[in-house]
DNA sequence: CACTTGACCTGTCCGC
DNA sequence: TGCGGACAGGTCAAGT
């Protein structure tokens, strides 16, 4: 579930909630995959440390700590990072929260701070992970060495984007933009949304897409990601922010989960097919697949 | 090598 | 209502 806008929303929320807090206790309900560190590493480098900052690169979250250590977190499909103050219920109105009292059966790790507040790492499908490591080692992670540019950074010009995506000329365009080494942060939702915006059929080979269409695709990717960050991300089923609240991008989605509904551009009914092994939503009238001769 | 497919898990929904 | 199968937003390893 969490793609760039969701992870960025969690990052923003956590920045407001946990910076300067001091870790006092960690309870791991499901190791080693969720949290592979040994007790002695945790005692030595996490307990007693202070949160300096919360950062993001692609879909990875990093909680930087004193003593030059960091917690690195990937939410994968169903991961959540939810903060709770001293009272164990969601922030705001009860309706804002998708989840009840914590920990619950999806809780993998519980972190406690010196002021009594807590941070929960929940993950129903157990694909996500949390790892405590020296901050300097983050750059050596294989993922960090291969991941492409941030789509919302000014450095990602259309020239750079076209150059990178052309390396996947033989792939279908949806697969190429889902590839984190092409650019960072696009997942299934925003792939479909941006391809609709650029009027490109998701199964078109990259080689059959013109440069100016790729430039438009990049523009649409930037647009949908920025819009979604503004809306607090997409909550399809699982995703919640650091306060347990849902995001509202889905209300603005043009194709994702809108099969059978009229296209906002032409009125044809949105269809759902499989492309690159993923559920794919598109308009069969304004996104026509082209095949090279 | 470039690209696609299956595996990792649990929960939910749909059809019989 | 019960049960089997398909499917779910990400990434990697294995296979073609």
Number of DSSP strand runs: 10
Number of helices: 7
Q: Judging from the principal axes of the Cα atoms, what is the shape?
A: globular
Strand content: 15-25%
Return Rg in Å: 20 Å
**Strand arrangement, major sheet:** 1-6-7-5
The description of the largest β-sheet is: 4 strands, antiparallel
Mean pLDDT: 92
Task: Return the string of H and E elements.
Answer: HEHEEEEEEEHHHHHEE
Describe the overall structure.
- The strands form three sheets. This protein has a four-stranded antiparallel β-sheet with strand order 1-6-7-5, with helices on one face. A four-stranded antiparallel β-sheet has the order 2-3-4-8, with helices on one face. Strands 9-10 form a two-stranded antiparallel ribbon.
- The chain has 293 residues and is α+β, with helices and mostly antiparallel strands.
- Helix 1 runs parallel beside helix 7, helix 4 packs across helix 7 and helix 6 crosses helix 7.
- The protein is globular.
- The two termini are 37 Å apart.
- The mean pLDDT is 92.
- 24% of the residues lie in helices and 20% in strands.
- The structure holds a DNA duplex (16 and 16 nucleotides).
Features:
4-stranded antiparallel beta sheet, DNA-binding, 7 helices, 293 residues, alpha+beta, single chain
């Amino acid at each position: 579930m969490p793609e760039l806008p969701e992870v960025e929303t969690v990052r923003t929320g956590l920045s407001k909630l946990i910076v300067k807090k001091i870790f006092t206790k960690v309870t791991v309900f499901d190791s080693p995959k969720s949290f592979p560190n040994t007790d002695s590493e945790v005692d030595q480098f996490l307990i007693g440390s202070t949160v300096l900052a919360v950062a993001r690169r692609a879909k990875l979250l990093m909680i930087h700590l004193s003593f030059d250590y960091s917690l690195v977190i990937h939410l994968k499909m169903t991961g959540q990072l939810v903060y709770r103050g001293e009272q164990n219920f969601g922030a705001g109105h009860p309706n804002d929260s998708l989840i009840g009292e914590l920990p619950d059966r999806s809780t993998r790790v519980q972190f406690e701070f010196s002021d009594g507040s807590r941070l929960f790492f929940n993950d129903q499908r157990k694909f996500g992970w949390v790892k405590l490591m020296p901050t300097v080692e983050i750059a050596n992670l294989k993922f960090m060495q291969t991941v492409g540019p941030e789509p919302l950074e000014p450095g990602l010009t259309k020239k750079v984007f076209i150059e990178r995506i052309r390396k996947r000329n033989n792939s279908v365009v949806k697969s190429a933009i889902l590839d984190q080494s092409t650019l960072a942060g696009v997942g299934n939702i925003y792939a479909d949304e941006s391809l609709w915006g650029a009027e490109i059929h998701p199964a078109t080979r990259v080689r059959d897409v013109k440069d100016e269409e790729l430039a438009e695709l990049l523009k649409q990717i930037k647009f949908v990601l920025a819009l979604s960050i503004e809306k607090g991300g997409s909550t399809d089923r699982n995703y919640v922010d650091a306060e347990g609240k849902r995001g509202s991008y889905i209300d603005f989605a043009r194709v994702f989960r809108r099969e059978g509904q009229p296209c906002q551009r032409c009125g044809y009914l949105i269809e759902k097919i499989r492309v690159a092994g993923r559920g794919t939503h598109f308009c069969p009238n304004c996104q026509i697949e082209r095949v090279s001769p």
